[in-house]
Request: fold
Amino acid sequence: ILDSRDKLYRVINARTADIKHVESTKGTCRDMCPEKERLMRVARLQVSSFELDEDGEFMDPMRAIKQYSRSSADQEIPLPHELRSDSVLKSTMAYLLHNIMNLCDDDNTQVGDWFHFIWDRTRGIRKDITQQELCTPISVELLEQCVRFHIHCSGRLIAEDPSVFDQKINDENLTKSLQTL
Reply:
């Protein structure tokens, strides 16, 4: 049903080929993770432990955060309901900082899973910013927080095994965050 909706939306709102009249897409998704992605990830068993309900059984829609996905030539331009506005991106980052960041020191948390989850979700935030061409005080704040995350990990996780924390990948993402900033 959601695929059909998206196809219909693309037909009705066909983008102009005239470069002078092309506008950037503005996100309208009100959730940290779009509905279609949540359903697809549940079906594909791609739910992180950080997104499960209190019983650890099901994805909690209030904890689910949009995953990063690489851009590819065959990927269509994202629809407005697939992108988060800067205010939703800000609340998503606040959720990560206040609910997930402190789990690094929890004995029950695998440091590698923790790092990968936050790294992936902050990449998703950066991608939403780039795809919407956001240049607002909020987007600057979010990029600064991404930079701080990578700096924090450089110091906190340096002694970890490379299979858990790859310093080179972290440095590359720090550089990309700084370039976008």
The mean pLDDT is 91. The two ends are 38 Å apart (CA to CA). Residues 59 and 157 are 28 Å apart (CA to CA).
